[in-house]
Amino acid sequence: MIGRNxxxxxxxxxxxxxxxxxxxxxxxxxxxxxxxxxxxxxxLKTPEQIDGIRKAGKLAASILEELCAFAKEGVTTAEIDQxxxxxxxxxxxxxxxxxxxxxxxxxxxxxSLNEMICHGIPNNVPLKDGDxxxxxxxxxxxxxxxxxxxxxxxGNITQEKQLVVDVAYDSLMKSIxxxxxxxxxxxxxxxxxxxxxxxxCSVVYQFVGHGVGTRFHENPQVSHxxxxxxxxxxxxxxFTIEPMINAGTSEGIIDPENDWEARTADGRPSxxxxxxxxxxxEGCEILTPWKR
Length: 292
Ligand code: MF3
Ligand code: CO
Description:
It is elongated and about 75 Å long. The protein is α+β, with helices and mostly antiparallel strands. The chain has one domain: Creatinase/methionine aminopeptidase superfamily (Creatine Amidinohydrolase, Alpha-Beta Complex). The chain has helices at residues 29-40, 47-70, 77-90, 159-177, 185-198; strands at residues 94-95, 110-113, 116-118, 132-141, 144-153, 202-203, 209-211, 218-222, 238-241, 244-246, 252-254, 262-264, 270-272, 275-279, 284-286. A hairpin with a 4-residue loop joins β14 (275-279) and β15 (284-286). It has 5 helices and 15 strands. The site of 2-amino-4-trifluoromethylsulfanyl-butyric acid has 12 residues, from β4.
């Protein structure tokens, strides 16, 4: 918001209090940026930052596509991780997951198999017929971040696995369709919970989508269930939606052996898809353009 002693928005070079006060004038992108940071600690990105995030998102999506094409029966997730490290190095980029957090995440990607909800650590177990695998790839390019994930199905999968894969995909893509300035962040979770539960699935509440772009995890937190974050979307917001959809209970348990891997409490399957998104004047742009 404009302050009493700030220059008036009309360009008169007088103080606002001596000029158009109390009319705050048309919201400029600059004043909106200040307001969003002050009120919500949300960074609305400048055109230059958006350009950088778009490039990082495009790279993350293209690496993710290569990793998914490589993920076949007999291949290990450690081998997929090795390919990810090579593709990041070849592009002059860094994998955001590697050494992230505490304890430092040991992989360059997350590889979450079957009942694993998220944050799976790549290992030496070969993929086998009937597996569903989430590959989550976040890339840093010239200081900007893109974050995305997809599911890969190995051979023939059960109906229950197919259901979570499809419901997670539709939860993501249908929630993206509603995005435009003025829609509240909370509407995303309201929609996804209603949609997924309507299909007989449950929605993970312990992990959320997030602002992303100039850092890996920024505000806002984007919950995929009903919540009270009634902040209106605004042009220049960049964030992820990454619903984790379970066949059985929504409860997840974090592996005490590594403090990262989250599995469903009942061992039933879980699926997730993720995009990095930009709110535009008209609606929304997908910054991580992968194909299903
Ligand atoms: N998309 C996931 C997230 O935002 C990626 C996690 S990478 C990890 O949490 F290093 F944090 F595991
Ligand atoms: Co993410």
